[in-house]
């Protein structure tokens, strides 16, 4: 199977190294393609920070582009360990009718949660990029896992998610995958990714795509903040607006609003959300 994927891959097709070198990526694509083509319900579960939001939003966009039936959940802001618990599966993921669960930057608390997913007929793909503490019986995408020969181990959640997106693009012969690098760039900057190796590619190319972004949410932010030339302090302002905060609503609910901003196809709606986020930011600053 790996030989087949290597033949599909073309190095000049998209930025970065062959995503199928990452252990289990071929299995993830087989599972994901089946879900997309069969119109199974895909639920993406992401972290409640800018890196997680950018990862989740970019994956949602490509799945929608492919006409996938996709929903999402965001972890509770207090979930500092980034783990999925039984109540998350029962009350949120299963409630959405998930057939396939993809986690980005989160993992399961124990094997009990995986067994619960199996009992509910929910298949799972886990993406994370930390030193794994446990071995789970699932499709596990992590450059740091034993037996993974992928060279770049220190990717942000956004960048690792983009590797999955690259693999999707290769399978479906998509030509426009790099358009999502604006989101990957912001997630990687927030994550303070080292500007070396593949991260250097993401940061350099991502900045280029941010400057010419066609994402309605990001365009509305740039316009609202009067950003014409993108520099470091401008990027900090963008990240500050995207960062989930507790004000009129919880951090998790704010994160959902930010996801809507980054995934909407309605320019007017994007402008409304940016105004709301800026209003909440100012209100919070007066309280503090």
From TrEMBL:
Any Pfam family matching the protein: DHH
UniProt superkingdom: Bacteria
InterPro entries noted in UniProt: DDH_dom, DHH_sf, SSDNA_exonuclease_RecJ
Keyword terms, alphabetized: Exonuclease, Hydrolase, Nuclease
Record-level Gene Ontology MF annotations: exonuclease activity
Residue intervals of the DDH domain: 41-187
PANTHER family documented for this protein: SINGLE-STRANDED-DNA-SPECIFIC EXONUCLEASE RECJ
Name of this protein: Single-stranded-DNA-specific exonuclease RecJ
Organism of provenance: Clostridium intestinale URNW
Record lineage: Bacteria, Bacillati, Bacillota, Clostridia, Eubacteriales
């Amino acid at each position: 199977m790996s030989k087949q994927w290597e033949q599909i891959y073309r190095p000049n097709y998209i930025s970065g190294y062959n995503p199928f070198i990452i252990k289990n990526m071929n299995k993830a694509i087989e599972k994901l393609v089946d879900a997309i083509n069969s119109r199974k319900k895909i639920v993406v579960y992401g972290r409640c920070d800018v890196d997680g939001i950018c990862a989740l939003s970019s994956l949602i966009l490509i799945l929608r582009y492919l006409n996938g039936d996709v929903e999402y959940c965001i972890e509770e802001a207090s979930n500092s360990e980034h783990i999925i618990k039984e109540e998350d599966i029962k009350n949120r993921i299963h409630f959405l009718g998930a057939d396939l669960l993809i986690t980005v930057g989160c993992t399961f608390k124990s094997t009990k949660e995986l067994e619960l997913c199996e009992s509910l007929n929910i298949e799972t793909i886990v993406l994370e990029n930390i030193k794994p503490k446990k071995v789970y019986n699932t499709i596990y995408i992590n450059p740091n896992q034993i037996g993974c020969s992928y060279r770049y181990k220190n990717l942000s959640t956004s960048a690792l998610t983009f590797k999955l997106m690259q693999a999707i693009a290769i399978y479906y012969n998509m030509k426009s995958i790099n358009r999502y690098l604006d989101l990957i760039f912001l997630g990687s900057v927030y994550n303070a990714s080292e500007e070396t190796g593949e991260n250097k590619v993401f940061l350099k190319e991502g900045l280029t795509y941010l400057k010419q972004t066609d994402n309605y949410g990001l365009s509305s932010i740039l316009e609202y903040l009067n950003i014409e030339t993108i520099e470091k302090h401008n990027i900090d302002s963008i990240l500050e607006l995207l960062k989930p905060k507790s004000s009129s609503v919880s951090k998790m609910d704010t994160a959902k609003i930010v996801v809507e901003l980054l995934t909407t196809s309605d320019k007017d709606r994007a402008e409304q959300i940016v105004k709301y986020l800026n209003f909440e930011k100012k209100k919070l600053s007066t309280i503090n």
